[in-house]
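Handout, section B. The chain below has 216 residues.
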Amino acid sequence: MITLYGFAISNYYNKVKFALLEKDIAFSEELVAPSQDDAVLKRSPLGKIPFIKTAKGYLSESQAILEYLEDAFPEHPLYPADAFERAKCREFIQHLELNVELIARRIYGEALFGGTASWETKDEVKTKVEAGLSGLSKLMKLAPYALGDSFTVADIVAWPHLQLVAFATQKLYGKDLVAENIPGIEAYIKLIESRPQAQKVGKDRAEALAKFFQNK
């Protein structure tokens, strides 16, 4: 059985968890924080989460994990069968994670954990996130799913990332940059959240956040 390591506050952890649930793969969860301890570094080379344990060993990096799950457990596929459409999923994910989420992450410390980002950082992030979201809107079809009429891995990745970016930008800038740059995104988020698997991930995330702030 797969073991998923990390914690439910992480959007990358939730991306993998969402995929495991959608593919109906048996798994257990073990709470692990990012760490430079040898015990973690032996399983995740940079001490990052999430990572998983498989029958053949450990695997880190959320996107590599999704690819592995698709190959190792072909039932309930999340990638389209057509090679070009599969590539479009990968294009979408790479654009979202590199040109939107990775940039927005620079303001998560203030938006979520009480840190402080400089005004220079906030202005730079806002400009780049808006550009990234504008590009993403050109890829998203919302018909009704991210890339068309079928639920795919693109939705698995979009849901946790765009929710967090929306929350962080609303908190820091007083406006949801995701909603401003991707018309129809609110209805899309509600559609994904109608899925029992997304509801499970969302419930566990809310409980983890409540526990985290309770211990602060």
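Note. The chain has two domains: 2-72, 83-214. Compare this with the example in section A.
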